[in-house]
Amino acid sequence: MDSFNFLTFHRDEARHAFYRTRRTGDPFFDPRTKTWIVTDPSDCRQLIGSEKLQPAVYAEDYKRLSERFNIDFSALISAFSYIPLCHHGDRHARSRRMASEFLAARRNVVAEHIPELTARHLSAFKRAGKFEVMSDAIEPMISEYICLIAGIEVGSIHDCRHASLIFDRSSGLNKRQAMDTEIASLRKVIVSQLGEGATEDEVGLRLAYVILGMDPLKGMLGESLHKILESNGDRKLTEISFPRLPPETGVPFIERLVVIPFCFKSIAFNPGDRVRIFLQSFAAELSDLSRSNFFGAGAHTCLGRPLAIEIWNGVTSFLSEIPLRASVLSYAPRTSDYVFTCPDELVVEVRA
Ligand code: HEM
Fold it and tell me: How many domains are contained in the chain?
């Protein structure tokens, strides 16, 4: 275990073999991340929905940072107040209900665009040649999906690079300030489109969906396509059996704070302890049922799960009709943050 750096483990190539072969006892405490690490899928399954654990309260952390360093983080603090993940108890129930009603109203609009969006953005898979899947296909496609989900003009979040990263605890102050600036301008874009009469809730919910959807979707599509193309060698796309659920996830782990003390596998977990539950471990179990846990479980289960799976199925049904081969020429994981698993580069060659 000492050989792994658990800050970067989620994007380390060696993780695949680790998940496939490991037989050692988890959880264990990692001094570098100061968290309990849980990588065994059956342990993860038992802990993800536990009521003895709660997501961290990010807004409180930012208020403290703001006071300590006299920096304005008001855009981030306000955004956190619309993200259900950042609340507990009754406040969470209210926030989740609001987010769920908003998404229900957008769901059909997004779903009816899936065939057209997929065909347009993935058209390079239909021609012989080389291309970079992330920048040429997945990133523009996901930006468009996010605009549709949030109900804002397509193209209006073009410069949005940091939105989903606001959950990264490893960021330095400069990066946190850059995120605050980005969230503030994103807010302005949304307000300018909705008009001055828009309520705080109408703006905040759209902002929350840009934050929650962007990197998880890019990571899921990029990592899953990489895995499938790599493991199918020289097969034509028509010959590949694509799984119904994505084989990899962009959300490699969730982090929790212990709120009620408990004992698990003879280890005492105390209030305030941090626990990092590696959802990406479910990829090694190779079943749709297990991989549905990529979307969390319990009170904070992902509200975007059905839509994310529909988007994945749109991609796979489009690719599975192309009688060409697509092989990976190069892949590099993103290293600019410590919360998502997502390719920075995925170059493929398409040929007969
Ligand atoms: C493949 C893509 C996605 C993955 C793997 C994913 C994964 C997750 C996970 C693991 C959680 C729980 C986090 C935790 O418990 O700490 C979560 C929460 C959430 N996700 Fe997703 N997500 C994805 C896409 C989306 C999309 C596209 C949306 C919106 C349309 C969305 C909306 C939400 C919301 C609202 C929550 C918070 C639920 C709550 O706290 O009650 N997700 N997601």
Answer: 1
Token couple for 222: 């990029």
Ligand 1 atom nearest the C-alpha of 87 is 40
**131 beta partners:** 348
pLDDT in tens, 198-246: 899 999 999 999 999 999 999 999 999 999 999 998 899 999 999 999 9
Cα 251 to ligand 1 centroid, rounded to whole Å: 9
The three-state secondary structure class of 171 is: coil
SS3 (DSSP) at 29: strand
Which residue's CA lies nearest to atom 18 of ligand 1?
302
Cβ–ligand 1 distance for 38 under 6 Å, the answer no
What does the alpha-carbon distance between residue 38 and residue 253 come to, in Å, rounded to a whole number?
9
Residue 123 DSSP one-character state = G
CB 212 near ligand 1, within 6 Å: yes
Nearest CA to ligand 1 atom 27: 213
Per-residue model confidence as pLDDT tens digits over 177-193: 999 999 999 999 999 99
The token duo for 119 is 């065909």
Give residue 340's identity as a one-letter amino acid code: F
Position 240 in a domain: yes
- Residue 165 belongs to some domain of the structure: yes
Nearest atom of ligand 1 to the alpha carbon of 220: 1
Residue 2 belongs to some domain of the structure = no
In this structure, the residue with its CA closest to atom 43 of ligand 1 is: 302
Tokens 């006299």 belong to residue: 70
CATH assignment of the domain containing 246: 1.10.630.10
Best mutation site among 90, 212, 227 for ligand 1 pocket (most ligand atoms within 8 Å of CB): 212
Residue 279: which domain range?
9-351
Strand ranges (E), the chain: 28-30, 35-38, 53-54, 129-132, 254-258, 262-264, 267-269, 274-277, 325-333, 343-351
Q: Is 322 domain-assigned?
A: yes
Taking the centre of ligand 1 as the mean of its atom positions, its distance from the CA of residue 77, in whole angstroms, is: 19
